[in-house]
Amino acid sequence: MSSIRDLYMFPVGIKRLETQGRMGSTVNSCIQRIEIMKHKYLITIDGGTSNTRVYLWDGPDNLIGEKKASIGVRNSAIDGNNHALCHALHEMLMELLQDERLNPDDIIGVYVSGMLTSAAGIYELPHITAPVGLDELAKGVRDLHLPEIWPGSVSLIPGVRNTEPDQVFLENLSGMDVMRGEETEAIALIPEISEGQGAVLILPGSHTKVIFVDSAHKIVRSLTTMSGELLQLLTQNSILADTTKKEFLSGTPDHSFLMAGYHEAKQSRSLSRAVFLTRVAGMFVNMDLVSVRSFLLGAVLENDVTVIQSEWKVAEHFNEPICIAGKGPFATGLYDLLQAEGYSNSFIYRPKDNRPLSGKGAWKIYEERSNDISGKR
Asked: 82 — phi, psi (to 5°)?
């Protein structure tokens, strides 16, 4: 009978043993384990306020499995503890391994970003202070043993703040901002910026994040707006609910009505007046639902554009590109409005795949830490 050693050298021997019942099954298992050992499997976790996503990768650009649960730090805040959140994370991780026939020992790392590193998450990790680049983020990662979630080490990626907490006062409050999760996405986007050039990164969402990156490719500061959450409240839980039928714009905005809503907000200098005009327009102007929703989107986004314009007046940002990393009407609307205001260097980042930026950024942070440990830098 051939030895296991023979199997590495003689493929014919493998086929012969595969037909020998239990021995064949054992050999197949050995072969499968050998194939698994050839790969580097990394798990990345992105947790927000209401949703948590777990991803399995066998390379920086190769996503092979994912799980999603409608649970986040909001649940912990309501419950007064994070038990349900930890349990959901553990279940998703184990299901992911089972789906791919992997063991915890096959995983080279579990990297966590987002609100899971906040007080209502799985462990509170303090923000690190800008300027922050890949090197600073990698050095700020905290490795913890959290057996209720994962049998091995869990690596938490820190969030970023604009300045030290003891330097924040009412007089300079507008200069302070914080982020958790967006810094990891920014790390994935920075390679899109030309060497030696800064950029403005916009991550639209419930809380839209505007991130300023300098010519050394470090995050120097950010600002946040609640435009996405505000749009949701107005659409579903205000007097406009009947006008919008409680639904967001799902496709491409109607450009003319997007601009109309934008100009109403800009000229009146009143967001509340502009959004109420959505109802007036729905009552007296011949507008379909796409037009009404586009008008409202333009009115809400006017505030975001104004904030970006005020920051843009700072000299060092004058010629920098604006990268909008998102999809759907929110990203398209922002792009259209910025272009209309003369920002011809704005563009929408369109990845070749649908791989999450949080996972791509986490891979880069993992690789940076690995290089530091191995002395490859």
From this structure: -110, 20
